[in-house]
Amino acid sequence: MAHPIAEANEKSPFGSLTQEEFYAHHSVSHGSEYITNSRGFKLFTQWWTPLPPTKIIGTLAIVHGYTGETSWFVQLTAVYFTKAGFATCAIDHQGHGFSEGLDGLIAHIPDVNPVVDDCIAFFDSFRARYEPSVPSFLYAESLGGAIALLITLRNRDSPRVTSTPWNGVILNGAMCGISAKFKPPWPLEHFLSIVAAVIPTWRVVPTRGSIPDVSFKEEWKRKLAMASPRRTVARPRAATALELLRVCHCWLFTAEMTWFATRLVWRSFTDAPPVRIRR
């Protein structure tokens, strides 16, 4: 089964089709709504379900990465899994996509834990639409990989979390470290905690190119990424950069968790050549 990225062009993930035509073409139904989290932010959520005769064999929750969203590349992967029989859902993190941000700021995550809380709350409400016997999985890219692991650890270790354990996690290009292309140069990395404490929203952290520039190997896909009206290429703010470094340093792996991990030679489904994404 080919990934829907094969139908996209450099201007639209749906290619020459409208969004409604695209979903109908793939026999997928789509829904969306805004939810209000515990901090009063309106967060955009959406879901995809397979149309008959395809039967639902499981649920899948997608966790997007830093500066990403659920309404551009990610929804192509959502449709890919939905066609295979998974009821799929996704949420725009605070300050990403259509979701409101902290103090109205775009792509600002000075603390990842509230984002984990948002994901758990929405994903659990989505899973509750189906019988408990239906297996559930997390699919995550980039920063979403770290968030997905934190979700599973929170599920296992926190007495406050009573949700059903996940059956597996699919990590695709997960952020288990910060590339030298994005890491603050010396000596800024060593003084970043001070800068973040004094001026947390200062875009002081330089990067060697935007995320789309270094993430996509094919030129037309870089153009498609940049065509999203909600994509930001601005430098990360000091507190966000510090939190990204902290999250990477705190990655934990345990033998008690069962992982269903997909390892790709290329960065992600949407950046892989057609011969690989059909596998």
TrEMBL record:
A Pfam family annotated for this UniProt entry: Hydrolase_4
Domain Serine aminopeptidase S33: 57-248
SUPFAM superfamilies the record matches: alpha/beta-Hydrolases (SSF53474)
PANTHER family: PHOSPHOLIPASE-RELATED
Name of the molecule in the record: Caffeoylshikimate esterase-like
